[in-house]
Write a structure and sequence with these properties.
CATH superfamily of one domain in chain A: Gcn5-related N-acetyltransferase (GNAT)
Largest sheet of chain A: 5 strands, mixed
Strand content of chain A: 25-35%
Number of strands of chain A: 6
CATH architecture of one domain in chain A: 3-Layer(aba) Sandwich
GO molecular function, one term (chains A, B): glucosamine 6-phosphate N-acetyltransferase activity
CATH class of one domain in chain A: Alpha Beta
Protein name (chains A, B): Glucosamine 6-phosphate N-acetyltransferase
CATH topology of one domain in chain A: Aminopeptidase
Keywords (chains A, B): Acyltransferase, Endoplasmic reticulum, Membrane, Transferase
Distance between the termini of chain A: 38 Å
Subcellular location (chains A, B): Endoplasmic reticulum membrane
EC number (chains A, B): 2.3.1.4
Structural class of chain A: alpha+beta
Largest interface: A-B, 70 and 69 residues
Oligomer: homodimer
Amino acid sequence: MQVSHSSSGEQKFEVRRLEISDKSKGFVELLRQLTVCDSISDKDFENRFREISSLGDDHVICVVEDESSGKIIATGSVFIEKKFLRNCGKVGHIEDVVVDSNARGMQLGKKVIGFLADHARSIGCYKVILDCSLENRAFYEKCGFKQKEIQMNKKHPPTRPACSNNFCRCRDNKVCVERMSRNLVG
Amino acid sequence: MQVSHSSSGEQKFEVRRLEISDKSKGFVELLRQLTVCDSISDKDFENRFREISSLGDDHVICVVEDESSGKIIATGSVFIEKKFLRNCGKVGHIEDVVVDSNARGMQLGKKVIGFLADHARSIGCYKVILDCSLENRAFYEKCGFKQKEIQMNKKHPPTRPACSNNFCRCRDNKVCVERMSRNLVG
């Protein structure tokens, strides 16, 4: 789907917070352009949505909706880390920024980053940080960011059989009790 | 203060969660070895401690106490980000790792990182990430991490007069109402 400008050539794309109904507007499919994101059941989506929402201003996911198509075409998130250092300072961590491949060149990424950075500043963060690939550095520099450090990661191999229940906490290679009980009841 | 081994040469340093009484054991002074961390009042420390503690397993600060001196000699934190992608996955963000300059060479940093990474894995994170300087890369590689991306940051200049109340939300260059009312009452 190509995102088109309106006849005036000035289609407005507003950034707003994620709503639970955005699942049916292609939000998950958009995330899939960023990394692995299998189908999520409505129940799991709702659970995760409520977990994040319960943090209020401390974890905000924003989206841009193409009103002509009703599809979500850009998103990003920021969560607020509360520290002791920097005089009990707060830092905004920006994550999972993606613009639909058909909606590039309309400054939507910049709008999303601006929304998230403004949000972090409005609640008192002394800085916002994010990790990105070297090839995206120039984009973030245009958004006012500077390269600072390097990012390291350590992946955790799954220690149990794949479990269809994303919210279970079963461990030690046991089969998820909750999933089993689900199967038993249908 | 030089941290010394016991007569057996095998002093045990256990990693445990931060307790509110650790403020009087040099926790803030230790953070100051990492970056700016002015004095924090007992009230502000308690407020921030309770904010972080309210997140339970989703934001854990650990410490190592030198039992012979009663001082905190190492610390680090991890907070858990809940995502939609990676099938509603979770990521542990490690922050603010520091070992007292007099307690280096005793593998305390490795212990702290191990504690935080194990915690993240135990509650289902598919990975842990952290940002560090190039010169610390070799240390984190020994802890099982690999360099992945680059970190960018954007600092927010203060938009209001410095306010002694770390927990106020006053904006728009107004003088903090809460601080004013404090002044009025003493």
